[in-house]
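Dear colleagues,

As part of the handover before I leave the project, I'm documenting each prediction I ran so the next person doesn't have to rerun anything. This entry is a single chain, and its sequence is reproduced below.
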Amino acid sequence: MGQFTEDMGRLRDEIASDRTNRHTLIAETREEISASALAFMTDLKDSVETLQSRFRADFAEMAQSNRADRNAFMTHLGTDVANLRVEAAAQREAGRRAFIESAAEARAERASQNAAMREDVAQLQDGFRRTRGEMATEVRAAGEAFVSDIVDAVTGLRRDTIQLVDDLSRERASAREAWRGGMPKAPPPPAPWSVRRRRPSRWPRRRSSRATPSSRWPSRRTSRPSRSRKRLGPGTRDPRRTDPARPGEPL
């Protein structure tokens, strides 16, 4: 056989041995990994179980302690609430009594104030009545004095006016007599003031403008003077006049 064949045989043997070594290494590595993994998982399981057992024990202990704390807190809270309710009831009762007392005092004070105010108002009303009575008396006296003064003034003016009218009438009568050519007659003496009466108006009183619509707007025929009226001469009396003749006036 040749060298090549020997080399090829040797190479084949090396390859087979390397393959066998490789398979052996893989198997050993798998076994080692499996053992280490199993040990790790076992340790991990043991650790987890230990942690869980400890957690359960701690949780149970904590729950028991919390339950005891809650029970103690609720007991203390119930006691505090009962005490607070008692104090609140006592304070409410004290406030109600204080309010009743203050309301009674305020009512009495208002009653006294109202009584004092009524007395003050009564005094003011009495003073107002007295002042009003005095003022009314003074005003009445002043009014009576003023009216008396006005009456006296009007009476004096009326007396002077009547005197002037009488003098004017006498002068007119004297002027008529002189115009007619006769001697003037002596005027009669004036009547005393107590005997004189109020003379009637020379012209009749004008009718009210609200009587009829025709009187408010007179027609042209009635408003114009009559053309057939004759002109009166001097010393002639108008026949339409109805008032009595004055002394010295022609009839």
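The CA atoms of residues 135 and 141 lie 10 Å apart. The mean pLDDT is 78.

All the best with the project,
I.
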